[in-house]
Design a protein that fits this description.
Oligomer: single chain
Distance between the termini: 24 Å
Number of helices: 15
Order of helices and strands: HHHHHHHHHHHHHHH
């Protein structure tokens, strides 16, 4: 609980600092006020719609795969688990908390951890892989433009791409060489046994059962490609929706001149450039990255409101929605305990 609060506090403080910088570095507020007053809310609703699509397709993989494997998971329950995962991703360093918490909540629904772990691995591979492909393709298409405007910032994009490739390669090795993971778990369990004694035997047995379930799901998916295709399709739709938000913000400000491909490619580079920063929700890095990459697009007078709107739609909306889900779920759990 303490870590969650610290994560939220860090994000709020970062937002406050960003607004403070905007206020203290702006000498003439007239252009800024004009931008805010003349926002086309219909275009902004388009950006909101993109994020709603993103939320829905965060839930689709587990809904489809559990159904393929003969388990029942109501779609609305899957949406709830998806939002909870996005919430924990938003408040933990490098978004590391999202998928473990989704696995935990799915286990509370009496769904096998082996299958949910397999879903998380598939989502990691296809989401990061698709994002990497989009980022690299965008760079190739707009190479001259990017080299002209982002001579320094592009190196952060290169680093992000390299980290994504290494991460995906590491996960693929574990999939194709399960003996590595089993050996690691055995060594880890021997270490844990030094602290918890005989309890480690039960923990090891349960862990091995779940690992076998994980690899069993993987072997089944190799025979039937429906699982992989479902996750790939959901990842592509999610990423297209997410990377399109800035296009709608751009037009909401009444701007023109830059096409969808340019804005899409730059947004992909922002994501790749800041995703490896070990900060809750990449707060601070996201703002700095967005400001650096989109300054030539929005200009001095509009970059701050554009950045704030983008963060609200792309991050804070998910955090708030997930926080509501976590609060409601916790309250229900407390009521059940008090009624016993």
């Amino acid at each position: 609980m303490k870590k969650k609060v610290l994560g939220l506090v860090y994000i709020v403080v970062t937002l406050a600092i960003t607004l403070g910088i905007c206020l203290f570095t702006t000498e003439d507020f007239t252009p800024l006020i004009d931008v805010i007053q003349n926002i086309d809310w219909w275009w902004l609703l388009g950006g909101l719609g993109c994020m709603i699509v993103y939320f829905v397709f965060e839930a689709m993989p587990q809904y489809i795969i559990y159904k393929n494997h003969g388990y029942s998971l109501p779609f609305l329950q899957s949406v709830k688990v998806g939002l909870i995962g996005l919430y924990y991703s938003g408040i933990t360093p490098s978004a590391t908390g999202g998928q473990p918490m989704q696995i935990y909540y799915l286990s509370k629904l009496d769904l096998p951890v082996g299958v949910s772990s397999f879903i998380s691995v598939l989502k990691l591979i296809f989401f990061q892989g698709t994002m990497t492909v989009f980022c690299f393709a965008g760079y190739l298409v707009k190479m001259d433009y990017i080299n002209e405007h982002y001579y320094v910032a592009r190196y952060f994009m290169y680093l992000g791409l390299a980290i994504n490739v290494i991460l995906i390669a590491g996960v693929m090795v574990l999939l194709y060489k399960p003996s590595i993971l089993f050996r690691f778990v055995k060594v880890l369990m021997r270490f844990i046994a030094k602290f918890i004694g005989r309890k480690a035997v039960k923990l090891r047995r349960k862990t091995m059962i779940e690992l076998e379930g994980f690899y069993r799901s993987y072997k089944e998916s190799k025979k039937d490609f429906r699982d992989a295709m479902a996750v790939l399709a959901c990842s592509v739709i999610q990423i297209i929706s997410y990377l399109s938000v800035s296009f709608f913000i751009y037009h909401a400000f009444g701007m023109s001149g830059e096409n969808f491909i340019t804005l899409f490619a730059i947004q992909a580079m922002v994501v790749c450039a800041v995703s490896f920063f070990p900060l809750p929700g990449s707060a601070g890095a996201q703002e700095l990255g967005y400001g650096s990459f989109f300054m030539p697009i929005f200009g001095d007078h509009a970059i701050f409101p554009a950045m704030i709107l983008w963060r609200i739609l792309s991050s804070y909306l998910a955090i708030i929605s997930g926080a509501v889900m976590v609060t409601v779920d916790t309250a229900k759990g407390l009521r059940k305990k008090s009624s016993k």
